[in-house]
Structures are given as C-alpha cells and as structure tokens.
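Re-running the complex after MR caught last week's input typo. The corrected sequence lines follow. Everything else is unchanged.
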Amino acid sequence: MPSYKAPVADVSFLLTDVFGIEQYGSLPGFSDLSGEMIDAIAGEAAKLCEEQLQPINLSGDREGCVRHADASVTTPKGFKPAFRNYVEGGWLSLSANPDYGGQGLPYTLAAVVNEFASSANMSFAMYPGLTAGAIAAIDVHGSEAIKATYLPKMIAGTWTGTMNLTEPHCGTDLGLIRTRAKPNADGSFAITGTKIFISAGEQDLTENIIHLVLARVDGAPEGVKGISLFVVPKFHVNPDGTPGARNGVACGSIEHKMGIHANATCVMNFDGATGYLIGEMNRGLNAMFVMMNEARLGVAIQGLAQSEVAYQNAAAYAKDRLQGRALTGTKAPDKAADPIIVHPDVRRTLLTIRAFNEGARALVLWNALKSDVAHRGGDAAAREMADEQLGLMTPVLKGFLTDRGFDNCVMAQQMFGGHGFIEEWGMSQFVRDARIAMIYEGANGIQALDLVGRKLPRNGGKALMAYFGEVGGLIKDASVDETLKPFAAALQTGVGHLQQASMWLMQNGMGNPDNAGAASVDYMHLFGLVALGQMWLMQARVAAERLKAGPDAAMSTKLTLARFYFERMLPETALRLARMQAGAATVMALPAEAF
Amino acid sequence: MPSYKAPVADVSFLLTDVFGIEQYGSLPGFSDLSGEMIDAIAGEAAKLCEEQLQPINLSGDREGCVRHADASVTTPKGFKPAFRNYVEGGWLSLSANPDYGGQGLPYTLAAVVNEFASSANMSFAMYPGLTAGAIAAIDVHGSEAIKATYLPKMIAGTWTGTMNLTEPHCGTDLGLIRTRAKPNADGSFAITGTKIFISAGEQDLTENIIHLVLARVDGAPEGVKGISLFVVPKFHVNPDGTPGARNGVACGSIEHKMGIHANATCVMNFDGATGYLIGEMNRGLNAMFVMMNEARLGVAIQGLAQSEVAYQNAAAYAKDRLQGRALTGTKAPDKAADPIIVHPDVRRTLLTIRAFNEGARALVLWNALKSDVAHRGGDAAAREMADEQLGLMTPVLKGFLTDRGFDNCVMAQQMFGGHGFIEEWGMSQFVRDARIAMIYEGANGIQALDLVGRKLPRNGGKALMAYFGEVGGLIKDASVDETLKPFAAALQTGVGHLQQASMWLMQNGMGNPDNAGAASVDYMHLFGLVALGQMWLMQARVAAERLKAGPDAAMSTKLTLARFYFERMLPETALRLARMQAGAATVMALPAEAF
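Corrected-run output:
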C-alpha cells in the first residue's frame, strides 16, 4: 500500500526563502501571507491530502467509475465524503473571486494545494481542478447575470464544472468542431453534438454540473473563427438558484482508460441542450485560451505530483528492501542482506527523480507567482511582462514536466523489481495516471510547436530576451561565490546551448518551418533543462548562504541535489542541441507510404 | 483495433543479405537453409501470428486469466485452440533436439518466430517461450531418464514448462531462497515453499505442467552455493508416460498486474511436492545460468516485438488521422485536414522507433547466430569466442532493447493523442505489456551490473577487445565508400566514446566499485547505441551496394533510416559518457535517511 507525505517544508523553503514571497505583499491576497501562514495553510492541505485523499487512491483505481442505465455515474467509494471535506475545508474556493464567495488568496497557493492533492489522488483532484478552470472562464467572460447564477454555487463546491472541447474527429484541430448551436427565441442556444474525453463529465458528487462547451453557431464561419463558447448546465437553474428540470445533455458512456480510473471520462451527448453564450460569438477559442496558461500549468503540476509520490514510495522501498550486498562490502551485517539503497544505481535513480521534483516544484511556483503578478499586479507593464514570461514558459512546463514526470514514475516503479508490476503496490497506478498528463490539455508535441511557432517569436522575442537577462544575472551573481561557481559555470554552458538553439531556430525555422517542427520537442526539453538549472542555482544560492551559519542537513541535501543536477542532468542540453541541428532533411525524406 | 504484419522481408534481408546465413551451412540445422526456405518458414510463422495470435491479444488483455476455487486456471478465450495450432505448426519444436522429437533448426529461426509471436500476442508467446527454456534446461542438465520422461512431451507441446525462482523476500538475490528440498527414500525430494511471479504457472492449455524449481536441500550451505534445481511435475508421470495423480504443487493465486494479463502469473505453493534433481546438487544456479543468455535474449526480443507492433499501428494512424495542416502549406486540399504524417515531429517520432526496431532486429539475429555457433559450431575456439561475445552482449540486449522498446511504445501511443489512452485502441496494452520486460529475467539495473562487473573483465576483457576489432574492421571497410563515409565517421565517434568509457571503468571502477555501479546503466546504453550503430552500418553497406544496381525503395528507406540513426540517435553516446565520468561521489554523498 503506497503512502504520501506532502512536501510542506520544501514549499515553505521555496516560497519564503528562495522566492521571497513577502516582496509580493502589495498584490491583492498576498498582504497577510507570512511564512507562518503559508506553513499553516500548506500544513492543513497536507493533512487532508494525506489522511483522506491518498487512502482512497488505490481503491479508486481498482473500483473505477460506473455508469448506470439512466446515464448517471457513481464515483468510487469514499469520493463523495472526501469531496465534501475538500470543499468545506475551503480548498476549492482558495484563490477564487471574493465577490462570489472565494477567498481571493494567491493562485500560487492553489498551485501548492493542487500538487498535494494530485500526488495523493490525481483522479480525485481533477474534479475540483476542472471546476476551478470553469470558474475562471466564467469569471472572465461571463455576463453579470451568468456570473451571479453560476459562480457562487461553483465556488461553494455545490456544483462542479467541466470543459467540453474534443470530438471524435477533432482534438488538436478544434477548427473541425461539428457541435452546432441554434439560436433560441429567448437568446439562449440549442446545443447538439457529441463530445468525447470529457473529464468529470458526470458524477455523483454534486447536485449540478456546469458544462463549458465549444460549438458552432448556425451560419458561423468555417474553422476556428466560427467557434463559440457556451455554458450548459446539467439541470436548468430555477429563478431561486436551485436546480430545476434536466437539460438535454447526458453521459453516453465512460471510456476504458489506461489510468485515472476514478475520474469519469465521458462521452457527452448534447441533444438540443439549452446553452448560454459566454464571451463574444465566434471568439470561443480565445475565451478558452485565456485560461490556457493556468490549465496547462495545472497539468504540469500533475506530472510533478506523480513523480513526487512515486519518488517517496521508491525511496521508502529502497531503504526497506533487503537484497544482495553493497559492492563495497556488507553494510548491514546483522541482516540477511543490505537494503538496496546501498547500491549506486538505486541512488542514481532516486536522485534523478528527486532533483527533478525539487527543481520542477520551484519552476511551478516561480511561474505561479508570475501568474499572480499577471492577473493582480498594480503595474500594467509588470503585468504584461509577467504574462509574456508565463506564456513562454507554459508549454515548457506542460511538456517537459509531464514527459519527465512520467519517465520518473517508470524509474521509481523499476526500483520495486517484480513488485512494481503488481497493482497492489501502487507503482503501476502512478505510471498509468501520469501517462495522461503528456496527452491532454494539448499533447506535448503540440506544446513544443506552440513554443517554437508562437511563443518564441511573439513580440520580437521579448519574453525570451527577458528570460536570458534574468538567468544571466543569476549566473553572474553566483559566479563570485566559491560554492556556486561550478554550478554557475554548468548553467552557463546550458544557457549557451539554449541561445545557440534559439538562434538556430531563427535562422533555419523561418525559411523552412519543417526545421522548426523537427527541432521543436528537443528545444522544449532543452529549455526545460535550463529552466530547472536556473531553479537549482537559485535554491543552491540560498542553501549555501544558510550553511554559512552552521550545519543544516536539509540545506546540505539541497546542495548535493544541485550538484547532481548540474553533473548528470543538465549536460543533456548538448544532445538536444545536436539533434536540433541535424535539421529536417532526413526527417522529411521518406514518402508517407514508406512508413 | 490494432493490427500486425510480421516483418518477413526485413528478416529475410538481414539473414540472407546482411549476415549471409549461407556461410553457416556447415552447422547442424543450417545445411538446407536457403533464402527461399527462410522466407517460407518466416512466412508461415507470420501467417499464424497475424491471423490467430494477434486477434486474441486485446481480448486476452481485457479478459485475463481466471483462477478457480480448485486452483485451476482458465486462459482467455481462444488461447487453447491457438496453442494447439502453434504446437501443430511445429513452432515449439522448431529448434529443439531431434533426439526427442525436435526439428533441430537454428535457434536463430526460433528467435524470428519469437519476435513475431511476441508482437502478435506477448502473453500468449510466453507459454511456449517458457516451455522452450525449460526444455533447454532439461536437455542440458537432465539425466537420460528425466530427458526421456519429459522432453518428448514438452517438445510435442503436450506439456508446458515453467521456471520457479523468485520468492516473496528474494528476487535478484537468489541466495536468500527458503524453499526446502527434503530427500525421499527413493532418491526424489519433497519440495516445500512458496514461489511468486511464476509466469504460466498454471493454465488449461496442456494436460501437464513441468515446473523447474530452485530449492535448498536440507543441510546445504547457506547462500547461492546451497541452491539446487528440481523438476516438479504438476501431475506425477505414470510408467507409461501418461499423467497420473496430482503432485503437491498448486497455484495459490494469480497476481493483478499492469500488463501481460493473459499470462497467468502465479503464486505457486509447493507442499511436499515430489521433485527430481537436475544437474549437480547445490549447483542449481549454474544450471539455470547456462540457459540465461537465451532467456535474456528472449526478453530482449519482447522489447523489440512490442516496439515493432506499436510502430506499425502508430504509422498507420499517422497516415489516416486528419488533423490540422502541414507547416509548409496544405497537403490534402480535398480533405478537411492533412494526415498528421505531414508533421516533422510525427515523422521524427516514427523514425526514432523504426530506426531502433530495424537496428535491434539486426542485433538480435546477429547474436542469435552467435548462440547457434556457440552451441553447434564444429570448432571449439570459435564456439568459445561466440559464447564470450554473446555473453558480453546479452545484458546490453536485455537492458537496452527493453528500456528502449518500452520508451518506443510510449512514443507510439503518444501519436494517438487521447485515443492512445483508451484501452480499445490497443496502444496502452503495448506499453503495459512491454513494461515487464524491463523487470523480469534480471531487472535492467542488474543487467548493467552484470555487464560492468562480470562480462567486461571476464578473461581479461577478451570479448570486448574482439568486439572493438569487429566494429573497427567494419568502420575501416566502410570509410572508403562515399555513401557510407559519414556513417562510418559517426560510428567511429560512438566507438571512441565506448572505448573511453571502458577505459574509465577500468581506471575508476576497480578501486572504487561504486564508480562502476554509478556508471553501469549509462555504460549499458552507450554500448547499446554503438551496437545499433554497427548494425546500421552493416545494413547501409548492403543497401548502398544494391542501390548501385538501380532504384530500390526498400533500400533507399534503409539508407534514410541509417542516416537518421547516425544524425539523431547515436550522438547520445557523448551524454552517456559525460554522465559516467561524473563518478560516484555525488551519487553516494547523502546518508540513507536523507532519501
């Protein structure tokens, strides 16, 4: 039976010591946020996740969701009371708009809670997670009437929300959407069509479900410029705000998936369902895309979260499992064998995962802070710059963290030998659950294209230039410190590769977009490697400083992890650059039929 | 619904054109083996695998094996007739000893059939696969009486075989085995203990099951030097050779696994079961290890096999799925969108898998031929050298091919977007089935240790020196050809890294074994990358030669794949070397409790 302990101390170290969250005190929601308050909030969230969400993770996977003949869906045992407790603990309303009952705390704190909840129970965390996304979409784009109707109930967790984008013939290419919206006389629309892969599309946790649906209004232009966004409640809402008659939307079936079994992934059938336009007509994709950075950051967090819980269980197993003897001689003579943690390759594996986790957590929180600045900052220029930087890093976060998060789960599973393959041990579930994060919310190949095709060139490469300035300054500062010098030098090499790679893209990708396409995934990983290096240098700087005051086991560990990262992980940048520079000629050489 | 087409033409190209199998004509079993005969045999095997094994793969995964209250086990629908047809087609007896009813054909051909069967249905292929292993063990170590009793029935497929090594507290470290063997008055033994993870431990395919069991004879020395090997039939064998009364061995339960659901992975309880010693007492591990190279090569083949079938399905989907438009402008104006094969990143992914597959298949067959020479060659020196070389390459084959095979299945699954996560599409099964190959028959970390700790230093590094001679000669020959020159240069760089790495291990691993341990997995992958480079240069040489005679689409594709391999895949050797050279200091720096 796997276990989980939320990394409260690491969050505290990052937000307080590394990122100096008190500097953000002028932003709404940040004013009262002392280190103690962060610890208290994270500690409470940890408790809920460890004690209530984690214990129903394995059973939820085994049990799955069940659809009944009347199209209702039952979630696994324990999910209903856990959802109640999650909501009553204030975790869903944490960063939501106070005008509608939210607590208005930073998005950054919501990201922390999201990591803990996703580690404890990814399937569960998706129910409030998707609701938070829908809340944000309605908050930004909804009319006052719609906001007043839906937001209080959703923020209170009385109703949940979903996102309905994909159709059988279109996922990435939403311009192909066929779901139709026919205007009704009263200004509403009748929505008809089939959506697939709708996470949390049906459940028994709440009295109503609010679907956000992309559809094409009759007569709208073809392609992406003819798509509008609608809110479609499962039950019509009575004038007094209570759920009324059933609307024309129902779950047609639940998908049989590789993982996240406890989240109902539904085929949703809309049969003349009443929907209400959100935002401008034919600008539905734009309305969805406003939420994209946070939604993608949320998926990146899932990659980190599965990697973290997989690491914890692998480390515990490695310290417990007795098998063989250390290469350098017996370490536990009183036992039949040494614990496998004595083996260098076991440690190498664990350190690879851990150095990722603590770097990735920093990168998530660093960018969550940028999201808070982008949405709450007082200074328009600072807001815009934060938004640009977050936009640049979003595909890196989503693609890199979920690719590596999955790989790490596989590595952690490997530590268990044959037991890793047996479902009762729980390691298989981490792998299977983590797998979806590489796919949904824009498959990782699409993230890479978004990075090289849209984010890099945007505004003349302003965000990238700002990034190089930021990391360059860090390297310069660190280079004068004896402890940090080798780390700074390693990071400088990585940054050099990223600069060469960016230059190569500019010189070779404009004239022949296939060069950019063939290089895109390697560039995304190269960027991610450098970004994690930046996060490790920032952490090492604080650790080195604190160690000057005397011994500190946690800070010594941080320095060792930083050293491991710079010695063994960051050097991958050279390989990524070399692959990019191979160009598209060979990649595109074969006729399609040769595949 | 996934599909599969066995790569008969590629096998034919490799065995006939690249490896010149006619040169082996003097070996027993090879004499009549013309190109036409290979095509005919491979073609027949392909037919069975495509038409009978593949169609019950997905259903077998869904259905799984069921254990009943009487400890009997039912395999999924269709497995029984398919097994009959497999046996009657002569596929189980293909390379078995003619003295006991085998056909005596090369092991190399059995490896070909094993690839096809594993691609079509990995769970199924394990039933005959484990039987073949047990047959080989009994053939080498059994007394005449035991061989006469068991081999004819097993080779005829009337009975199957299993391997019983692992116990709950010991997998890698077999010295910890607790299963006891108590001598009976008649020279047999009473075996008592519990074995876990026993593939094909119980089934309804055959009238008897012959278990090979590692156990400790009462009073035997502690550790690995006190383990003996026994044959334990499920049903006692009557004097007339028919199955008699039930023996004291039964399936206690079936494991719930991540994959290979259609193969019954059993907990086997031995309760005073009658067993017969095979080979010398207390030398049971040696008896098992004689079979190890072929058993591990068999698992390596599973890695290749899943990668191959995953590739085929991903390539078909990429040519079929319409989504978005090519970066360089619309390619299918008559359709709503272009097939996703137009995208460089889709091609890059497919080529990465394909270049692995065709390189790995070559490496498997190249080493299968070495196995045939080692076991059948007339010249003792040649036999010994082949055995040494096969021994050196065995951990590379097992570790590298299964690590990459799994990664490739994940990449192929990714091509399907959300559909890849849905079980009905079959891509998830390839990933889940491929996962076990990294674990069993010695987890890949153990393979890497075997490589650096045992195989490299053996006989003063003779096998490695021979390897460098072999690949050096190839590079020298190829360097004079204009087409091959850049490939040869790239391979020379990779070989240089492997030489540096080997030197580094000698200089740093002897004094401090932790350096060898920390470097082992990177060295294994570095070796695998170079070995695949060698295979690609050998194939490119033939392709370049044949293209001189005129256009040949298949040979042009081979050259493109070779180019892709040398441009984008082989450069990873530099990263692997750099990681190794980081040494063990940081890896071993933390106290165990810091993990």
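None of the earlier attempt is carried over here. Chain B touches chain A through 95 residues (CB under 8 Å). The longest strand of chain B covers residues 265-278.
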